[in-house]
Amino acid sequence: NARLYQDLEAANKSLESKVEQRTLELQQEIIDRKRAEQVAEAANRAKSEFLANMSHELRTPLNGILGYTQILKKDRALTDPQKNGLNTIHRCGEHLLMLINDVLDLSKIEARRMELYLNDFQLRDFLEEIVAICRIRAEQKGILFTYKVLSPLPKLIRADEKRLRQVLINLLSNAVKFTENGGVTFKVGYVDHFEDSALTQTSSKLRFQVEDTGIGITQEHLQEIFLPFRQVSDRHRQIEGTGLGLGISRQLVQLMGSDINVQSTPGKGSIFWVDLDLAEVDCPSDIPSPDRRCVRGYQGGKRKILVVDDREENRLVLTNMLQPLGFEVVEAIDGREALHKAHQFRPDAILMDLVMPVMDGFEATRQIRMSPSLQQTVIIATSASAFDMDRQQSRNVGCHDFLPKPIHEAELLERLSLHLKLEWIYEESSAERKDSVQPTLLAGQSPPAPNTQDASPLIAPPAEEIAALLNLAMMGDLQAIAERAAKLETLDPQLIPFATHLRQLAKGFKARQIREFIKQFQMSE
Ligand code: ADP
């Protein structure tokens, strides 16, 4: 018994020491793991910081480029070719800016700090702008670029405009990039308007589809193209891209509650598409968006603005945006000079760069706020910094607002009018929209089709066509009406809303409604 007891005791001891040892080992493992995590975190932070700094450096010269294109575009003496040239410089500059932001996005996605910001915008203008950018690239390459609107589109939608643009431009630029012969087709419409759509009912989802007749992607590579820094094509093409686009785009589309779909045949081409549930927003009226109207001045007495920036081109951009509108502008090259000039000049508003030598914008703002006579002066921080932190800190030291660089004129004016309570004077003629000449117009008296939310007037085909359609409607030949409507669409894209409505009525066997619908156009002849 005593022996057994001794044995047990020994076994117990050895077990205890083993447990102790293992505990020590585990503790060491935890410490090691923590240390490794800290190292990785520090490396990640360093990378994010590097990317943010780099983006600051790259954005600064862009402020000069984009600022001046905005200013020059307003010159009334410009010839049409000059205007076109300026527009191209501006668009390319904007594109460059987008690329810089891409790199930043990736670091945000990796840090899981990506969010969507919804706003209301005009879908048609939005798409046309994208098409214009991509068409230039396709033309430069000598390939065709076709834009097809397959169904009536909602006028105003709510989405993250910037992110949606980013995704579409990514898909379209890829298509152009990887196509040498043939062309790229960009189709937009409700899902049920696509040829291959298996849907029998109308869908509320909008599809954005990019088709190309390019090099295609092999089955095995299809899985890889969405991974960051993955480029599966030959060397020559790899030089052109970052390999980041699709990775970011897919993450963004997933945030929007959908995914990027792809079908591809090597040597034949690819189709990328995205289906999105985009909320349509009611348009209160047809007021042109403020940025489309040209501001020429403001009501009331002269206002004074102090522009603070260490870079001459940045000061010039702001001065040249503001002076023609009747502002009195004074410039300062750093925080210290800003302080001095603020006292001397008593501006109504100060546009304050944040990063400057001698005295930075934070310190200058802090000191200005300490001076009783300047406490109420509006200060708007302007910065190319990508750190959200800077935005917050600028508020903490007493800035009213924050404007990211490159400065967008419309945004600058919006902030000034908000803080200085300005009422703009617009150039009269620009209030009219320069829509193309349209054939027969009819105000939307007819009930809109289920997904025909477009409030613009329907464009009807010529009188003979109306007569033929009415004839078919009288005979109740719905099948023939649907076929004729389909043909009309291909003849003239402007007829798409008319044809779609007709087709939908035919699909629903609404013979009487079809007759009434067509008769309206007959009467308006
Ligand atoms: P990048 O275009 O900068 O290389 P992306 O992430 O946008 O990066 O695309 C990743 C890869 O997917 C491309 O390098 C290319 O190999 C492939 N790819 C994308 N779109 C197409 C396309 N339309 N046709 C052929 N290959 C494509």
Label this structure with key terms.
5-stranded parallel beta sheet; 50% helix; single chain; binds adenosine-5'-diphosphate; alpha/beta; 16 helices; 5-stranded mixed beta sheet; 17 strands
Task: Write a structural description.
β10 (about 305-310), α8 and β11 form a beta-alpha-beta unit. The N and C termini lie far apart (about 115 Å). The model is unreliable at about 235-240, about 285-290 and about 430-455 (pLDDT under 50). The chain has helices at about 1-70, 80-110, 125-140, 160-175, 220, 235-240, 245-255, 310-320, 335-345, 360-370, 390-395, 410-420, 465-475, 480-490, 495-505, 510-525, and strands at about 120, 145-150, 155-160, 185-190, 205-210, 260-265, 270-275, 280, 295-300, 305-310, 330, 350-355, 380-385, 400-405, 425, 440, 460. The protein has a 5-stranded mixed beta sheet. A 5-stranded parallel beta sheet has the order 11-10-12-13-14, with helices on both faces. About 50% of the residues lie in helices and about 15% in strands. Adenosine-5'-diphosphate binds next to α4 and α7. Adenosine-5'-diphosphate binds near residues 217, 230, 232 and 246.
Helices and strands in order:
Elements: H1 2-72, H2 80-110, E1 119-122, H3 123-141, E2 144-149, E3 156-159, H4 161-177, E4 183-190, E5 206-212, H5 219-222, H6 235-238, H7 245-255, E6 260-265, E7 269-276, E8 279-281, E9 295-298, E10 304-308, H8 312-322, E11 328-332, H9 335-345, E12 349-353, H10 361-370, E13 378-383, H11 388-396, E14 401-404, H12 409-420, E15 424-426, E16 440-442, E17 458-460, H13 463-475, H14 478-491, H15 496-507, H16 511-523
Parallel strand pairs: 2-4, 10-11, 10-12, 12-13, 13-14
Antiparallel strand pairs: 1-3, 3-8, 4-5, 5-7, 6-7, 9-15, 16-17
Helix pairs in contact: 1-2, 1-8, 2-7, 3-4, 4-7, 9-10, 13-16, 14-15
This protein binds adenosine-5'-diphosphate.
Adenosine-5'-diphosphate (ADP) binds at residues 170, 174-175, 178, 212, 214-217, 225, 230-233, 241-247, 270.
